[in-house]
Q: What sequence folds into this?
């Protein structure tokens, strides 16, 4: 699915350069569940943004299937994001004046073969709340709406940046369970950023990051469900 070689990202210029990513090479397979684990400033978000076509590397090569992403034009990256990628962020970015169903439906206008809207809402366990507005939902429910909005266009890849960062223990587990179900039931490749080592138990593979590089890659031979995690 992804093949990266020597990815480096430098922000700024001259004496104020900051290297956010240093010579990162990795492969991510179709249908894999990968966790990017590391402290703040380790390069996790920079790597996720480059994989998602929200940013481009300063140097190195990156391909998604047969798409070359390094050096791609903004129009090409926009098409890549629209056709292949679903994003879930720590903050939900829902439109307050729209219901759950309407928030999810927005994305179907730019999707070639979208999922049925009610199917996406049901997949995240919110069918009874489909006509509620964001202000009438808990934080965990709002995050599940964000996941439904991300998956309704049937993306090949689901990229999640600290999806449980603003949630409590119990609610966070519910959200993780939804992500795992999307990965398993739909075959969607999932890449999840976290600083919480316990979440790594759900992944096929954990990439531990530090100082802008991958410090080690760990295969998980005993995947856990969200209910088995000990935070």
A:
């Amino acid at each position: 699915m992804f093949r990266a070689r020597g990815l480096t990202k430098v922000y700024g210029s001259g004496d104020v350069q900051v290297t956010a990513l240093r010579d990162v090479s990795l492969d991510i397979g179709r249908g894999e569940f990968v966790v990017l684990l590391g402290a703040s400033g380790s390069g996790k978000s920079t790597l996720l943004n480059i994989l998602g076509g929200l940013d481009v590397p300063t140097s190195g090569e990156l391909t998604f299937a047969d798409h070359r992403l390094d050096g791609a034009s903004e129009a090409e990256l926009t098409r890549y994001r629209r056709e292949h990628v679903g994003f879930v962020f720590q903050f939900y970015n829902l439109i307050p004046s729209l219901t759950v169903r309407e928030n999810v439906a927005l994305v179907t206008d730019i999707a070639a073969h979208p999922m049925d809207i009610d199917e996406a809402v049901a997949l995240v366990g919110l069918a009874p709340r489909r006509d509620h507005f964001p202000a009438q939902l808990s934080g965990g429910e709002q995050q599940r709406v964000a996941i439904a909005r991300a998956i309704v266009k049937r993306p090949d890849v689901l990229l999640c940046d600290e999806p449980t960062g603003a949630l409590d223990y119990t609610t966070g587990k519910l959200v993780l369970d939804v992500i795992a179900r999307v990965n398993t039931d739909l075959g969607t490749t999932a890449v999840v950023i976290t600083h919480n080592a316990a979440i790594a138990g759900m992944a096929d593979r954990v990439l531990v990051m530090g100082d802008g590089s991958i410090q080690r890659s760990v295969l998980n031979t005993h995947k856990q469900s969200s209910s088995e995690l000990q935070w």
Summary: The chain has one domain: 28-57+77-228. The two ends are 30 Å apart (CA to CA). The CA atoms of residues 52 and 59 lie 16 Å apart. DSSP finds six helices and ten strands in the chain.
